[in-house]
Design goal:
six-stranded mixed sheet; alpha+beta
């Protein structure tokens, strides 16, 4: 994608970055920024430094491709345990060493990345009430906000319009 390096020019989050990248390609534009949209280590392999190694390889691939910046809309690993806490507050929580409390944010921090801001609508997922009940494994008997295991924020259910929506915030970090 193309990004001028300012907070104001950041995409809205994961969804918006993907849309902008596709539009830039369709317009035959020139990308200058790599967006690491997702990176994950299997649970049985965690704790071995593979996440940082993977991020380093991705960032290096961006450099080899001639991209000058590397950013990521980070979905903090522990945030689902605190779905009622706004991301802007969650991202400021630190451990005794002063590094971010969240292990995924801490990995980026230890690699020298800097947290830029919250991407308030990074991922927006919509579906019918029946779909949300299937996905969450929970009944939603009336309209309202529901805590769903694994979600970073409450799911909003609107039974009258037969729609459920989850709007997850992420944290923009910059590696280069």
């Amino acid at each position: 994608m193309s990004w001028d390096g300012t907070i104001g020019d950041l995409p809205g989050g994961y969804d918006d970055a993907l849309r902008q990248a596709v539009e830039l390609r369709e317009a035959n534009g020139r990308a200058d920024t790599m967006v690491i949209a997702a990176a994950q280590v299997r649970p049985d392999l965690q704790g071995q430094g593979l996440a940082a190694l993977m991020l380093r390889h991705l960032a290096d691939a961006g450099t080899r491709a001639g991209l000058t910046r590397v950013i990521a809309p980070v979905r903090p690993a522990l945030k689902a345990r605190y779905p009622l806490t706004p991301m802007a507050r969650f991202m400021t929580w630190t451990g005794p060493d002063g590094a971010p409390l969240d292990p995924w944010l801490r990995t980026h921090h230890r690699m020298g990345a800097r947290m830029l801001c919250v991407a308030e609508r990074s991922m927006v997922m919509q579906g019918s009430v029946a779909e949300w009940e299937e996905w969450a494994g929970l009944p939603f008997p009336e309209s309202g906000r529901y805590i769903v295991p694994g979600a970073l924020a409450p799911v909003m259910i609107d039974r009258e319009h037969d729609v459920g929506e989850l709007v997850e915030a992420n944290v923009w970090v910059q590696h280069r």
